[in-house]
Amino acid sequence: SYFLRHARSRNYVSESEVCKLESVPLDFGDYHPLKPITVTESKTKKMNRKGSTSSTSSSSSSSMMDPLSSVLDGTDPLSLFAAAADPVTTAPPTDGARRKRDKDESSAVGSDFEPWSSKRGEILARYTTTEKLSINLYMGSEKGKATTTGSAVSEKVRTRLEELDDLEEGSQKELLNLTQQDYMNRIEELNQSLKDAWSSDQKVKALKIVIQCSKLLSDTTVIQFYPSKFVLITDILDTFGKLVYERILSMCVDNRVSLPDNFSPESVNDTAKETCLNWFFKIASIRELIPRFYVEAAILKCNKFLSKTGISECLPRLTSMIRGIGDPLVAVYARAYLCRVGMEVAPQLKESLNKNFFDFLLTFKQIHGDTVQNQLVVQCVEIPLYLTLYSPAIDWILQCIAYHAPDVLLTEMMERCKKLGNNALLLNSVMSAFRAEFIAARSMDFIGMIKECDESGFPKHLLFRSLGLNLALADPPENDRLQILNEAWKVITKLKNPQDYINCAEVWVEYTCRHFTKREVNTVLADVIKHMTPDRAFEDAYPQLQSIIQKVITYIYDFALLFSVEKFLPFLDMFQKESVRVEVCKCIMESFIKHQQESTKDPVILNALLHICKTMHDSVNALTLEDEKRMLAALINGFIKMVSFGRDFEQQLSFYVEARSMFCNLEPVLVQLIHSVNQLAMETRRVMKGNHSRKTAAFVRACVAFCFITIPSLSSIFTRLNLYLHSGQVALANQCLSQADAFFKAAVSLVPEVPKMISVDGKMRPSDAFLLEFLCNFFSTLLVVPDHPEQGVLFLVRGLLNVIQDYTWEDNSDDKVRIYTNVLHLLSAMTQEAFIYHVDKVDSNDTLYGGDSKFLAEINKLSETVVSQILDHLKTLGKEETLKRQSQLALYFFNTILAHGDLRNNRLNQLSVNLWNLAQKHGFADTKTMVKTLEYIKRRSKQPEMSHFTDLALRLPLQSRT
Amino acid sequence: MGTALDVRVKRAGKVYHDGEVLSGVVVITSKDTVQHQGISLTMEGSVNLQLSAKNVGVFEAFCSTAKPIQIINSTIEMVKPGKLPSGKTEIPFEFPLQMKGNKVLYETYHGVFVNIQYTLRCDMRRSLLAKDLTKTCEFIVHSLSQKGKLLPSPVDFTITPETLQNVKERASLPKFLIRGHLNSTNCVITQPLTGELVVESAEAAVKSIELQLVRVETCGCAEGYARDATEIQNIQIADGDVCRGLPIPIHMVFPRLFTCPTLETTNFKVEFEVNIVVLLHDDHLITENFPLKLCRM
């Protein structure tokens, strides 16, 4: 009773004037606090803003040097580090260091050179087999004494010899009937045992493994697996090459100083040279051609230790050595390996690359020779398949040749290929290896060549596909463009096999989108539909179809244009597998959100996108992951936000209604819709400048009704609470008083349902902080909500207080009392003659009651109850373990009285002194806070009508801590 | 293992020439001090001749002459009897590789019937209670470069069914024409044997083409001699049915230790030959033999 009767009366206007910060006009000319600060300009900026005291933080940040850029002055630390770490050769060859060095080495070629590593996976994925494979190894270790070794041969030499002999005569280990996976595992095991042997210093065993592995490359049974086998085994060879190189390099370390990267052979010590020579001698004595070739190629780099010209002498020799390999497929892969090693070790030596290719052309006729044909018959492999086995190797060789090669050379290469009767296989490799610009500029020539080329089994559609890939990267001459498309499509459309067809079409769609209008795109799409629909061929081609869609939306991102491509939607219908369809829809929506600049009401777009969004929405089921749902909802929300019918608010609302019915399973979308509708209501209010006509009033009521019936369908309780409050505020602003009341009542009745724990980001958290925040927000709103004429005074506030009273709070929490204290703020604000804020065109209680004494008495009664509740609670906290909380709460209450109570009242004054003492009583008060509070009181006492604070200050002792 | 003895020569390749000084260290590692009766170093070089089993019966009398022929044998005393401290002791040495009189220092060679080997042996004599310690280390001798220029002696060859000897049924042979050349049959031992080979035509598919390096060792004296040809190494230069008309390189590195410059002495001879072996798919084996003369330049 003694609290609010003596609530301090406030003059909000004058108070706010006193408290308002001095407003200083800001110079927004070139300054914005979020603008990135550049160091060079910082000085002039500082000058500009001198005298502006508006924001201390911004001025401090401007005078500061940007710490990042100051660090980056000079060489940036990363490159500095890289430079320092470059000669890592001293370090033991750990995997990491090795990988790093690999990177350095390949960078010698330049990053525009597509490295082997990127081809690797492709080949492994493409050349597979279901046939049984076998590995033939002669790795026996048990072996009788060599019979012929003379007694004079030294022990060391003899053991070496024996070990080497094991290769030839040792027990044979043959693994038959391996599946492809087994085979790969075996090879990986060999790779591992190579490393193991090496690290346990069994160099001879390591060499044996490598020789045996490279021997496998001469075996062409299960020929369709050969390219993959090549990949696997050359991995081992690469490992071996690196091990040997690093080992010898580590021998060159002199006084802990390792050799620089571009060392000269003179700086290599004798031991290292001798070891290196030994390796070469050992390899030179390998009996069989293919292992000898591969192993020597693998350690080609080691020539650097012996002589400057070593590599340049070796490469041509190795190149001509391949001529001895009879099988053309084995030979071409050997060439590919040599080119690969050559590019890595000495990219400047181009001649061997060319020589390799020319040699290959010379032996080209062998492919159609009897030996090969007989082999194919035995293995039941068709010529077209056989020819595609060559592609990776030829592609690679040509890629090495074409790298930074002058056009003249490329032209010469082309001529040479032509001489061999425009062979399709070669043509294809030329197209995949040479620069796209080079190909594109001669597109018409190539089409001519493709047409007249001798197919000899190599499928022509692959040629068109390769050409298409080039044209996707580089543009052909303007005048040829249409003709190219016509010529190509003429062939493509005739392809019978849907897989062949779609592989080609996929590539050419990009070209079409890039250079032509929607008419051509439409035609192409129509053609694809026509080919892929029969026998549901599309089912096997989803990845390609998906890529077509992606290409189309990359080039046509004007959605009005896109949907005017008539065949686009029918094209989408081909995605009948749900997961794929949803993926495609997501792509389209992402593109829409990314590219759509202005909101739209185009019915075509809306219809199509609604359909697409509906598809995404309908894919949601009980098994859908939360992330997936969130993503879908975000995409749909993005779409909803982009829809605007301008001033046609009714249309807009009916769109939202339709959207609600469509997307009812995605809560975030419903939330978005409620916000959108609220926004729509506020927009209406803005347009009507707050004065609703009968029609607009009905409209906003419709909006409010929309929200009111949508909110209950949400599951998250705080979302509902906040939306009730928010929508209530919107209703209030639009003078829909009874509707606003309904929202608030709904919110009040929802509060008891708030659980103790809620799930936040998948973790269970106590809900009290959220509830506290919501309730404070709610009370602030309730200040301006006028009482319903048929309900009692402060009906909503009472209702909410009752709910709070009955709510089962956490046992050891003071939240309830904190809320009560905050309620006191509200009640004191309610006693004022004019409230601190109002809603435009809504009469709040201050106007309704006009300071009626009955009203004030009601408030007093309420506050009395609340205060007694607080004091009761403070009493219960008198126990040892709760003293700290008691102290905090007491101070909190004290501050409330200080701010809102009229302390001229003696009892109130006494209460505040008691609270002050209670806060300090058990030594839990923070001295600093107490001192600050006291200083504040003293300062306030100097203000007019506040002289009683002086007395108060005198009555508040500061407890010194002993 | 209390004490370990090791002999290390300075050069990594362990290769020395006549007139040079062999230098290195003897390393003794021990936990305790070593009591010894002197450490000596012996340089030995000898030729060992062996008779192949098939010849032994015929030339039994010959056996007695097949005892090792000493080329060089000299000993130096490194350390007088005394004590060595514990830990690692390195004793450097220098040993002149000098032939006495007119004797020739043959190159190191490891063959089947002829072995020419040079060793450094370190002996540590010890008291009765402890065993003497011995460590041997082989070093390699290369003869000095021969004076004068090596004249290349290129050889062209053509192999057809008609050029073959030792053929039983010439008619059953498939037709073939193989041409080629060796750049020189006078070879510098450090340089590879090179040349080219072209399969101009062959009715049967080629299975493999190999270079077989053969040593021909002759041991003997007035009483008689034994001549044996054995394979040193076999290098495949073509695998599978090679492209017709395309020259295939002939390239073979002479292995170290197992080859030496062609050697002819009163007691033994070491000579080398190369065979070009063409294996056809119907298991016809065609061999063409070329004697080589190796030298060191």
SSE blueprint:
The complex is a heterodimer of chains A (962) and B (297).
Chain A: H1 12-19, H2 42-48, H3 56-63, H4 67-71, H5 77-85, H6 95-106, H7 116-126, E1 133-137, H8 155-169, E2 173-178, H9 180-199, H10 203-216, H11 226-251, H12 270-284, H13 289-298, H14 303-306, H15 310-321, H16 328-345, H17 350-362, H18 370-379, H19 383-388, H20 391-402, H21 407-419, H22 424-433, H23 436-441, H24 443-452, H25 460-473, H26 481-492, H27 498-515, H28 518-532, H29 542-555, H30 559-564, H31 568-572, H32 578-595, H33 603-618, H34 626-641, H35 649-662, H36 667-687, H37 694-710, H38 717-733, H39 737-750, E3 757-760, E4 763-766, H40 768-782, H41 795-806, H42 815-830, H43 845-849, H44 853-876, H45 883-900, H46 906-921, H47 927-941, H48 948-955
Helix pairs in contact in A: 7-11, 8-10, 9-10, 9-11, 10-11, 10-13, 11-13, 13-16, 15-16, 15-17, 16-17, 16-20, 17-20, 20-22, 22-25, 24-25, 25-27, 26-27, 27-28, 27-29, 29-32, 32-33, 32-34, 33-34, 34-36, 35-36, 35-37, 36-37, 36-38, 37-38, 38-39, 38-40, 39-41, 40-42, 42-44, 42-45, 45-46, 47-48
Chain B: E1 3-9, E2 15-17, E3 21-30, E4 34-36, E5 39-49, H1 53-56, E6 69-79, E7 82-84, E8 87-96, E9 109-110, E10 114-124, E11 133-142, E12 155-159, E13 176-182, E14 186-188, E15 193-202, E16 206-221, E17 224-239, E18 248-252, E19 263-264, E20 268-280, E21 285-295
Parallel strand pairs in B: 2-11, 14-21
Antiparallel strand pairs in B: 1-3, 3-8, 4-7, 5-6, 5-10, 9-10, 10-11, 12-13, 13-15, 15-18, 16-17, 16-20, 19-20, 20-21
Can you give a write-up of this model?
- Chain A: Residues 161-193 form a coiled coil.
- Chain A: One of its GO terms (biological process) is protein transport.
- Chain A: Belongs to the VPS35L family.
- The complex is a heterodimer of chains A (962) and B (297).
- Chain A has 962 residues and is mostly helical.
- The radius of gyration of chain A is 42 Å and the shape is elongated.
- By secondary structure, chain B is an all-beta fold.
- In chain B, strands 2, 5, 6, 9, 10 and 11 form a 6-stranded mixed sheet that branches. In chain B, strands 14, 16, 17, 19, 20 and 21 form a 6-stranded mixed sheet that branches. In chain B, strands 12-13-15-18 form a 4-stranded antiparallel sheet, with no helix packed on it.
- Chain A binds chain B through residues 148, 150-154, 157, 218, 269-271, 273-274, 277, 280-281, 284-285, 287-290, 292, 317, 320-321, 323-327, 330, 359, 362-363, 365-366, 369-371, and chain B through 11-13, 48, 50, 110-112, 115, 117, 138, 205-206, 209, 230, 233-243, 246-249, 251-253, 255-257.
